Automatic annotation (TrEMBL):
It comes from Photobacterium sanguinicancri. Residues 196-347 form the S-adenosyl-L-homocysteine hydrolase NAD binding domain. SUPFAM superfamilies: NAD(P)-binding Rossmann-fold domains. GO terms for molecular function: adenosylhomocysteinase activity. This is S-adenosyl-L-homocysteine hydrolase. Belongs to the adenosylhomocysteinase family. InterPro entries: Adenosylhomocysteinase-like (IPR000043), Ado_hCys_hydrolase_NAD-bd (IPR015878), NAD(P)-bd_dom_sf (IPR036291).
């Protein structure tokens, strides 16, 4: 077997090799069928190369569907990924928007499989959610099932009727460390973008009043790292008031979304699903900076806002896109509305990403070998499996035991 391709630009693959070894050990508990095709939606991060290699070694063919936010920023990394044996990157015809069309999704699958193939879909962000009913019917004998990595992706599969199992790993407790790691990156790179493009520091409270919409793992992490930068006046809002009860004792001001948007001009949107209603944008009386934790399509429902005329794009660059509201107020989307760490090299230096990658992979492997353990529709990876991954990860990276 050729050596895995674990780095693209880093000098050494020491850390990446340790992550590869961890994922490889998890995968070796299973024997996938021959002629297996895996469709994997994934960010183009250099830190994902160990995972990509392990998936490609499991499958006869790994069909890599890059998420556009990072694919566009990392064209040369895509070339490296393409050199991984058994890995094939789809062309630009197959993307988040086009795969909403069931016929396009069917065409991608048909060109990637043979008559005797079985295939798995490892989804990230609900790319196949609009086509899943069609896929499960057309490929009823070959589609083994689907796994979904994220909460906003899972949301898109709700109320769909399909007769294949979907295993979600979006709400596992072992995802929390990676969410906090992502929160740290988002705060750090938001600060960097503000400095680069506006000459502002995120902790200059004379110019920036900071608000966080969404009090889940990512929102709580953002607040933690904002406080670490010396920001003492932070507002937080969430549609679920229960999530807000933890904040007053920690010196964070709780607020309605309406009041937060009216008083703050640096917003971290951490809901994963439509953080800012159109009516709030129409009511803005000032310019606002916005950082998101996922794509603007999901976090802000940007295409709908543009179609309705609530936002009109007026300019920008690779780090900032500027939009105008109906009242001609400027909305500055850091990183173009994608997660604020996407323009930068991320994903290495902390092994927490291997926790959720292992869970995502394990869910797919179990669908292949333990078909009778799953039913049609949505279910979660078991607590027993989650504990197993956590214990192995602690032993592998931190000598637990």
């Amino acid at each position: 077997m050729p050596s895995p391709i674990l780095t693209h630009s880093y000098y050494s693959d020491f850390f990446a090799h340790k992550g590869y070894a961890f994922l490889k050990k998890i995968s070796m508990d299973y024997t996938p069928p021959s002629n297996l095709v895996i469709f994997s939606v994934m960010h183009c991060y250099e830190g994902s190369l160990p995972y990509i290699n392990v998936l490609a070694e499991l499958a006869d063919s790994l069909v890599f569907i890059p998420k556009s936010a990072t694919a566009e920023q990392n064209q040369t990394l895509k070339e490296t990924i393409q050199t991984v044996p058994h890995c094939n990157i789809v062309d630009d015809r197959f993307n988040k928007q086009s795969l909403r069309d069931p016929q396009v999704a069917e065409a991608l699958i048909r060109q990637s499989i043979s008559a005797d193939s079985q295939f798995l879909i490892l989804d990230h962000g609900g790319y196949f959610s609009h086509a899943i009913e069609h896929i499960s019917q057309v490929f009823s004998e070959q589609c083994v099932g689907i796994t979904e990595l994220t909460a906003n992706g899972l949301y898109k599969y709700l109320n769909k009727s399909f007769d294949k199992p979907l295993v979600t790993v979006s709400h596992l407790s072992i995802k929390a460390p990676a969410d906090y790691e992502a929160s740290e990156c988002i705060v750090h790179y938001s600060d960097q973008i503000l400095r680069e493009e506006f000459g502002l520091k995120i902790n200059n409270d004379e110019f920036l009043k900071v608000g966080v919409i969404g009090a889940g793992n990512l929102g709580r992490g953002v607040i933690q790292y904002l406080k670490g930068k010396g920001i003492s006046c932070i507002q937080v809002a969430d549609i679920d008031s229960r999530k807000l009860t933890q904040f007053p004792r920690n010196g964070v001001q709780v607020s309605s979304i309406e009041r937060l948007v009216s008083q703050c001009n640096m917003l971290f949107c951490c809901t994963g699903n439509g953080a800012l209603p159109e009516a709030l944008l129409d009511s803005l009386d000032k310019s606002v900076f916005i950082a998101t934790v996922t794509s603007a399509d999901d976090e802000l429902r940007l295409p709908e806002l543009i179609e309705s005329g609530a936002l009109v794009e007026v300019g920008g660059n690779k780090l900032v896109r500027e939009y105008h509201t109906r009242n001609k107020q400027s909305i500055y989307l850091l990183a173009g509305g994608e997660s604020a760490n996407t323009p930068f090299k991320t994903g290495m230096g902390d092994p927490t990403l291997y926790l959720f990658e292992a869970a995502h992979m394990l869910a797919g492997l179990q669908l292949l070998e333990e078909e009778n353990s799953f039913t049609a529709g949505i279910q979660a990876l078991s607590e027993t499996d989650e504990i197993m991954i956590a214990e192995r990860w602690l032993r592998h990276f931190y000598n637990y035991g």
